[in-house]
Amino acid sequence: MHPVMKETKMVRRSFVMLAVLTLVAWTGRVVAEEAKEGTHEGKVVKVADGKLTMTDKDGKKQHTHAVAADAKITCDGKECKLEDLKKGSPVTVTAEKKGDKVVVIKIDAKKSDN
Question: Residue 98: what pLDDT?
């Protein structure tokens, strides 16, 4: 094999490997962002199938949380159900690790500020 062809083949392999590693690193960061423990604020996008999709406080960075079946959910200080949350409503969620998953255990929702 000609030396130039060998070098070209090595460069291609290196590029592919770099692209794969970059994708793996980026994907790992996205998963970590969606599965953080702790409390944060945002706005409701939708509720479906035991999950809450929300944005950050600025209405950006959409992410989805699994909501524990026994999660404590309040709407304007009164007990409510996950399905009672309305699109655009400000929420404060608290998530913790249960088993091998991070789930929401508490949601405090306010009236929509739209």
Answer: 87
Domain residues for the domain of 98 are: 37-109
Cβ 60 vs Cβ 15: under 8 Å: no
Tens-place pLDDT, residues 45-95: 999 999 999 999 888 899 999 999 999 999 999 999 999 999 999 999 999
Q: Does the global pTM surpass 0.85?
A: no
Residue with tokens 């026994």: 70
**What gap in Å lies between CA 57 and CA 40, rounded to an integer?**
9
AA identity, residue 67: V
Asked whether residue 54 falls in the same domain as residue 103, the answer is: yes
Look at the chain and report how many structural domains it folds into.
2
Instruction: Collapse the DSSP code of 37 into the 3-class scheme (helix H, G, I; strand E, B; otherwise coil) and give the result.
Output: coil
By CB atoms closer than 10 A (0-12, 13-18, 19+), residue 18 is: exposed
